[in-house]
Amino acid sequence: MRVISSTNGLVAVAAGLFVALSSKSVLAEEGFVPTPERIKELVHMVRQDCGSCHGLTLKGGLGPALTPDALQDKPYEGLLATLYRGRPGTPMPPFMGILTEEESSWIVRQLMAGFPEDGGPLPVAAPGVRVR
Amino acid sequence: MIGYCQRKLLRIAGVASAALLLAACATTEAPVVRGTGDLGVIIERATGQVTVVESTGRTALAEVPGLGDLSHASLVYSRDARYAYVFGRDGGLTKVDILAGEIVGRVIQAGNAIGGAISQDGRFVVAQNYEPGGIRVFDAETLELLSEVPTVWGDHGQRAKVVGLRDLPGNRFIYSLFEAGEIWLTDLSDPTNPQTQRFPAGRQPYDALITPDGRYYIAGLFGEDGMSMLDLWQPELGVRTILPGYGRGEEPLPVFKMPHLRGWAIAGGKAYLPAIGRHEVLVVELGSWEEVGRIPVRSQPVFVMSRPDGREVWVNFAFPDNGWMQVIDTLENEVVHSFQPGRAVLHMEFTPKGEEIWISARDDDKVVMYDTRTRERIGELPVVSPSGIFFTHRAHRVGF
């Protein structure tokens, strides 16, 4: 989220307005965008590996649904914190170490807007190689 | 409907010569008489179809599409090992005739499901559901709904997700409630009139196993260090915590995929169990429930599966280490072999007597086979985004 003011209260108000005024697609395109190759990798990871708890269709499983409808009342900051730092007391693990915070932000924005379909794994990755 | 022969030839031949081969099929195809003991079904999770395979010649026999969302799927076999009941993520319950290679029944029985089980006498199948939480009982012949048990708990009428459903002798079923931290035992002697007993268990059970004799039910816990065990020969003793405090108070490591538990954990009188949040396999002696070992492994274990003779235990791992597998020697209780069978190993299955293991490499779009004695790769089969591999010998095992 962009910093608009130096006081916390104003930031919160401005951020709220920003979210309210932005269309979902604008939100998805704001901020950091990974390289096309990394996007392919991230989309595959979310659909397939996050999908083991949240479902390939992201309609939920042991973990909750991550469709735009399911996320519409959830603040972006909370979602980012959940993805990047995990959610203590639940099975949601922190993805820091797998993802950068910027990549996490990109994923959250795509989830809120409607996540892209999986184009498959990167063709070049060798067996057992970590994503990062 | 096109037959076995046509489908197979179509896949082999491609478009150009298919018409010719189809003509050949039409004139030569006769009913194939064969057993099902060497057959199996592989889930293709991204395409919503299953592939029927045979492990004698390591070939695919048929592809059966139209099973819905199989992003998480499991199946059980009818007692004659001809029909597979496939439980899909979207609540679909599909009955597949694996000899004919076709769907013979399908219902959408819930909004979000995780698996199922079949009764001792094979007359009904039971689905375990996340949404709405509970189990549902279906006639194995017709898939008609016979009864259900909503997993209502707490003071506000909420329903818990059901995990770890296993069949028991006496047409009984046992399962765990994730949010409620309870184990429920449902007697379906009369499948239209379920009788349920509730047992308090540990926090956040995520899956469970029943030992091959149907005696001990062990639920893995996400919410605490330990596992919940119920002795079904003496259920009046209640649930006991085994392996208490196995994490030794250390900060747990992130769990990027929940482990899966089943009766394959038992080898040589001991249970080999995945730790949660620790890169270890825990070894506990059945009966005494003493921890007799903990084996450091490469990452978070997912499937910890003993070879049918119990001499070795093969392990795969959670993302991002899911390209690796390891083999544990059960006399030494240590890892003796590490290898990389392919990208994104989701599941594996031993052939009935354990001479081979078949391994799903999702991101390589293939199932690979290894000789379990030489540990050499002996074959592979192209399968799109494979996950679960289920051989028909499950039909005759309690808890499968």
TrEMBL record, chain A:
Matches recorded under PROSITE patterns: CYTC (PS51007)
Chain ranges of the Cytochrome c domain: 34-115
Keywords: Heme, Iron, Metal-binding, Signal
Keyword set includes Iron: yes
Pfam families the record matches: Cytochrome_CBB3
Keyword Glycosyltransferase tagged: no
Signal sequence annotation: 1-28
Domain of life: Bacteria
GO MF terms held by the record: electron transfer activity; heme binding; metal ion binding
Protein name (database record): Cytochrome c
Species for this entry: Azoarcus taiwanensis
The organism's taxonomic lineage, starting at the top: Bacteria, Pseudomonadati, Pseudomonadota, Betaproteobacteria, Rhodocyclales
From TrEMBL, chain B:
CDD domains named in the record: 8prop_hemeD1_NirF (cd20778)
A Pfam family reported for this protein in Swiss-Prot or TrEMBL: Cytochrom_D1
Signal sequence region: 1-18
Alphabetical keyword list: Signal
InterPro entries: Cyt_cd1_C_sf, Haem_d1_sf, Host-pathogen_enzymatic-act
SUPFAM superfamilies according to UniProt: C-terminal (heme d1) domain of cytochrome cd1-nitrite reductase
PANTHER family recorded: DIHYDRO-HEME D1 DEHYDROGENASE, PROTEIN NIRF
Name of the protein: Protein nirF
Organism lineage: Bacteria, Pseudomonadati, Pseudomonadota, Betaproteobacteria, Rhodocyclales
